[in-house]
Amino acid sequence: MAQKIDQDVARFKAIIRGKIKKELRKFVATGELIGKKGKDLISIPIPRIDIPRFVHSEEQAGGVGEGNGDAGQPVGPGDGKQQAGNLPGEHLMEVEITFEELAQMLGEELALPRIVPKGHEDLASRGHKYTGISPVGPESLRHFKRTYRKALKRQIMMGTYDPRAPLIIPTHEDRVYRTWKEVKKPQAKAVIIYMLDVSGSMGSEQKEIVRLESFWIDTWIRSQYQGVDVRYIIHDAVAREVDRETFFHTRESGGTIISSAYKLLIKMIEEDYPVSDWNIYPFQFSDGDNWSGNDTDECMKLLVDRILPFSNVFCYGQVESEYGSGQFLKDIEERFPSEERLIMSKIPNREAIIDSIKTFLGKGK
User: What is the pTM of this model?
Assistant: First the structure.
């Protein structure tokens, strides 16, 4: 019976997984998932799940429920006027899945390769490995099978073992315990640094697109590393570090100096993230406006000399805005026609988010 239940649960989970994968592109383009996440699980609304239920056969279905009825006669009690219903309506089902499962489905849908981290042989976390047996130790580490075998051998040698009543009673001398030693485990760590243009030309819809895309980028990169830091930079003419809530809800005005964000990014890396120890992922989102050609030239120099050398990839996403010129993307494309570590994406609307994610993460770096 238990095996049958396990099979039913597995089949139901497969149905749910299929529904989520079918609707995944819709989830990416909407905000239904964000705000419903917990520490390890995320709640997803799944419509149109067919739950088994009893139905009558045609012979048992009957008529209107009050005899045969006459033409024009109201169905059910009352005079035919609209009344409150007493039957359940169609509802959405909230299904919880782990972020790991969500990342796996994203990877399958977009055919994303697994990320190959940079070498970090010297970066390690500490763990425990059980390597031997000792006659002393805490009871929580007692090796029950070995203790039993040792007691059995002792009783056989002493002639006290009776196979007709095989009672084995370990003594203090029979007990053995597992021993462990501390080992270092290689560990790859990553930092994601988001840079967002919050100047007057970036509206609420552009920021919402960035919020949606960053959620899925986080989900995938976190599934590839044991430890991930996330930092946020906003800028107009001046850049500053903020928390996540401020990053997505700041309203600014004024001009744009992109190099201010690049300089703060470089300062963060130099102070907190040694290049030999960290996989570094800068993501920049803008509508493509910059204050001047001189500042754009400085940005290109910073990219070449300071930023690209320490980045796994540098991703620039240009969110289209009716007020933005889009010139910065053209400048980057002209300056870096074939740089593999610099990935560019044009995001005209929410429907383009999933293609942008594929562009950013499809190289497996």
Answer: 0.64
